[in-house]
Amino acid sequence: MQSMEKRLPFQADWNALEIGCGTGLLSCPVSSMITSLTALDTSEGMIDELNKKIRSRRISNIQPVVSDIFTFPHVPEQKKEYHLIFSNMTFHHIANVNGVLYKLYSLLLPGGYLAVADLDEEDGYFHNDGNEKVHHGFRRSLFKTQLLQHGFTDISFSTAAALTKINRVNIEKTYTVFLVVARKSKEQ
Ligand SMILES: C[S@@+](CC[C@H](N)C(=O)[O-])C[C@H]1O[C@@H](n2cnc3c(N)ncnc32)[C@H](O)[C@@H]1O
């Protein structure tokens, strides 16, 4: 959240979409800075937890949705396009990153922002379950190339966090998390 606040010019009239919101660790603080937030997660359990937070904190501008980003409907005639799409630690769970970038580009308003935080390329031992189908982080230069191929501009990376943990092979290791911010071109 601190990295996003430093890097994004949040505006009170923004509509945003979050991919893989989980229990809403980012959704809640982001929602207090904008008009509305659609928070997607494939897991009903995660959305249940987010709904509990929304009720207990009396948050009225988050719309939680149980949905995969790939099946989330894009209905242009409803003019539900976004000033900001963001995601934390979800992209490494998405097999078809190019497919999702294509969709996110189409969901953004011209000039809109994409903010993705995820693991830098890691040793493959970050996740405790070795059978989980995940990307072992991302190499920033390759991620940048993918963003450029989809038409994103103004692409910049920073290091948002460093997580030190005992990994799956019992070694204490520090894993860094990048935040990349990119924009959809203003001319469409
Ligand atoms: C590691 S958790 C991160 C949760 C939250 N962003 C956070 O930082 O606390 C990844 C989340 O992404 C969700 N997820 C994975 N693939 C998804 C997809 N294709 N569409 C929407 N959500 C997805 C998972 O259900 C999970 O809740």
Give an overview in words:
This protein has five helices and seven strands. With 188 residues, the protein is of the alpha/beta class. The chain has a seven-stranded mixed β-sheet. Helix 2 links the parallel strand 1 (15-19) and strand 2. The longest helix has 13 residues, at 44-56. The radius of gyration is 16 Å and the shape is globular. 31% of the residues are buried. The mean pLDDT is 94. Residues 19-22, 25-26, 40-43, 46, 68-69, 88-90, 93-94 line the site of S-adenosylmethionine (SAM).
CATH superfamily caption: Vaccinia Virus protein VP39
Low-confidence stretches: none
Distinct ligand kinds:
S-adenosylmethionine
Per CATH, the architecture is: 3-Layer(aba) Sandwich
Structural class designation: alpha/beta
Mean of the pLDDT scores? 94
How many strands appear in the DSSP assignment?
7
Measured on Cα atoms, how large is the radius of gyration? 16 Å
- Main beta sheet: strand number and arrangement? 7 strands, mixed
Biggest sheet strand line-up:
3-2-1-4-5-7-6
Helix content: 10-25%
Number of domains: 1
Distance between the termini: 30 Å
The percent range for strand residues is 25-35%
The succession of helices and strands, N to C, reads HEHEHEEHEHEE
State the name of the first-level CATH class: Alpha Beta
Provide the CATH topology: Rossmann fold
Number of separate helices: 5
Shape: globular
